[in-house]
Structures are given as C-alpha cells and as structure tokens.
Amino acid sequence: MIKAAFFDIDGTLLSPATDRLIPQSTKDALVELRRRGVKCILCTGRPKVQLPWCITDGFPGFEGGFDSYITMTGSLCYDADGVYADTPISPEVSTRFIDLVDREGFDILILNREGSFASGHGPRMLELEDMVAFRYPEADIHELVKKPVYQFCAFVPPERDEELRQAMPDCFVTRWCDVFCDIVPSNSSKPAGIRAALEHYGLRQDETIAFGDGGNDVTMLQYAHIGVAMGNGNPEAKRAADYVTDDVDKDGIPKALRRFGLIG
C-alpha cells in the first residue's frame, strides 16, 4: 500500500502554461490523496525561501501545505516539527569549488538556509530566472562559503558535467535542464532525502510513489516503489520511470494516481 507520495515542483506540480500555478485537477488530486491518508511530500532542488505560496501555505482542502519538504536536492529536509536531515557541503569542498569557479569564470548559485545567491547574471542565469520567475540577488560567493552551503548550481552546458564530476569527486552532479547543473554532497540526493523522510515517519520504500520530469528526478524515480514521469518530462526521466503519465497541463498527476488506485 502506498503511504507517501513525493513530488518535484517545476514541470511536475507547477505548470508554465498557467503562470506557474498548480493546475486545479492536481489540487483536487492532492486533497483526495491526503484525505486517504497518504503523506504528500515535496522533493525539490529549490531552497525553502524559493517555494511558492501554493506549496508552503496550501489551498482549500490542503491547508498548511505539504506534509514534509525535501529541499536543495535532499540536503535539507524538514516538516512542521523541525529539521530531520541536514547535509551541508563540507567547507573544504566548497572552497575547492569556488577556486574552480574563479579559474573558469562561469556563473553559479549558492544555496544556503537563507536562500539562493548568484555570482553574476550572465545569459544562462537570466534564462533560468525567466523559467522560474525569480530574481536571484547577487552576493560575494567567497563570503557565502564561510557559512554552510547545501547546494551549488553551475551554469555550464551538459557536456561539461563529466568535467565537474572529475573535479568534484566527493559531490553528486545532476541536472534538471540544459541551463545549469546541481552539485550536492555525495551523501545527499533526492533518494537520500526520501530515505530520511521514510525513516522519520517509519515508512518503507515499497510504500512510495514519486513524480518528476527532469534529469535530477531520475534517481528519485528509480528509487521509489513506483516512479512516474510526466508526459512533458525529458527522455531521461521517462526512461527511468515505471510509468509515463500525461503532461502537467493534461491532468498528468491525477491520471497516474487513478491508474494506481490511489484516488477515485
């Protein structure tokens, strides 16, 4: 029996076609899923400060938002009772990455508990800001790494991912889209966040379903008992999934939940 459902945000819960809001059919499905006793858990690369109100505050029938939040690709997990998984990047690794950025000159985001901060605003950074409707403040990255860092976003093309993996062997490099890649501690990932949530709530892996659309959802879809890729997802996510549903704008989430008997 499925007791926990994990959801990515962009392209999964939020639709670019409806000004990045949760479609009403998805809202109705989440309300029914919770009413049937299934925990609804967010699993995202975003930090807490960048979660939209419809995620954190909820909506009629889904008051209070999601039951739990796996943020920054599994590096910081919390619910109403507090933080239950806290996995920052080590200061030594953060400093080594900043040295690489200084040599190579590409833009980055630094994600910490306070938010997401940009090293600069080149074309790739501006493209992401258009995609997520969010303006990242610029800050001194050398000062930011003096505090715990949970995730870096490197604004490089996909063909440079392997280069970053070689330079950062103690990190996990993954990618949602072609604009940037995520860099998190090697002991962190979306599956690591899910494992932390399952331990926290006393649940099992075979009681999970997960929904995603991007490359950084691949391991989550593979780890969940049932992995569902959105119809608008990329080929990598679809290959990793147990089931490919319809687009986010075409009732993809409720259709999949009905397919597996989780809602009526």
Structure keywords:
264 residues; alpha/beta; Rossmann fold; Hypothetical Protein, Haloacid Dehalogenase-like Hydrolase, Chain: A, domain 2; eight-stranded mixed sheet; five-stranded antiparallel sheet; 13 strands; globular
What does it look like?
The chain is of the alpha/beta class. The chain has 2 domains: 4-86 and 188-259, HAD superfamily/HAD-like (Rossmann fold, 3-Layer(aba) Sandwich), CATH 3.40.50; 91-185, Hypothetical Protein, Haloacid Dehalogenase-like Hydrolase, Chain: A, domain 2 (2-Layer Sandwich). The chain is 31% helix and 22% strand. It is built from 10 helices and 13 strands. The protein has helices at 24-35, 53-56, 91-104, 123-132, 141-144, 161-167, 190-201, 218-223, 235-240, 252-259; strands at residues 4-7, 39-43, 68-71, 76-79, 82-86, 108-112, 115-118, 151-154, 171-177, 180-185, 208-212, 226-229, 243-244. It has an 8-stranded mixed sheet. A 5-stranded antiparallel sheet has the order 7-6-8-10-9. α1 runs parallel beside α10. It is globular and about 55 Å long. The mean pLDDT is 94. It holds the Pfam family Hydrolase_3. GO terms for molecular function: hydrolase activity. This is Cof-type HAD-IIB family hydrolase.
